[in-house]
Amino acid sequence: MAPFLHIWRLTIPTFGLMVATAMIAAYFVLRGDLARRGIAAKDSGFAEVLIAIPGLAGIVGAKLYHVLEDPGLLLAHPGELISQYGLAWFGGLADGAAAFIWVAKGRKIPLLQVMDAGSVAAALGYGIGRIGSLLSGDGDWHSNFPAVGNELSARACANDADLCRMGLASELSRAANADL
What we know:
Blueprint: E1 4-7, E2 10-13, H1 14-36, H2 46-69, H3 71-76, H4 89-106, H5 111-136, H6 150-159, H7 161-165, H8 168-177
């Protein structure tokens, strides 16, 4: 876990660095896919718009969802609205997706076609952003998993209720105990 990089007098949050990296990597993938599909030329600027606007909308949506999730915290600490901490994944997804659809409809491009083109870029961006979450110390529930046995299932359920509800914990336990 390394939430910050300290370079001389500069402090760089690793989560923000990974979000920026994710947006850049997603841009190059999306630009190539849009050109390959004949939706937009590589030099058209459409990929930049499809990354920048939904990316910024996603960050704003993640922050708004976080502060609206606990209005008491917002009322007690109004500065939380402009704090660099506290982003909720669901708000980012909702606002980012809405902005992506808005940009695509504004260009009158068939929605399913542009969403299909953006799916690989979105998956790559999400994966890189997730690494940023892990570097910052958020969401690293899996680092405590033992290598074998029912203890794996018990810890998975204790650390991630969604994983437990989906029944994946028992599958992980069975896989750990299987003879390969």
